[in-house]
Design brief:
Blueprint: H1 4-18, H2 23-30, H3 34-41, H4 50-60, H5 64-67
Length: 78
């Protein structure tokens, strides 16, 4: 089973690919250190801060809610 870090990493890669961006460009536009963003994209950052996620989402033009609106996070448990 995938970890949260792996889900986040894969989803981030999908989002930046859709917008024809690079990890480096996202880091620059978000005002974050390259190493911080690399850790998120590589799944090494198991707990990125909400501030970091908000900055990345702002750069991608999406809300934090929209960012987490993908499986497994939008699955309703029964």
């Amino acid at each position: 089973m995938k970890t949260d870090g792996e889900f986040v990493s894969e989803h981030l890669m999908e989002l930046i690919t859709q917008q024809n961006l690079t990890i480096n460009r996202v880091a620059t536009l978000a005002g974050l250190n390259q190493s911080t963003v690399n850790a998120m994209f590589e799944g090494r950052s198991k707990r990125p801060t909400i501030t970091t996620i908000r900055k990345v989402c702002g750069t991608l033009g999406i809300s934090v809610h929209d960012f987490f609106d993908f499986p497994p996070y939008n699955k309703v448990e029964k």
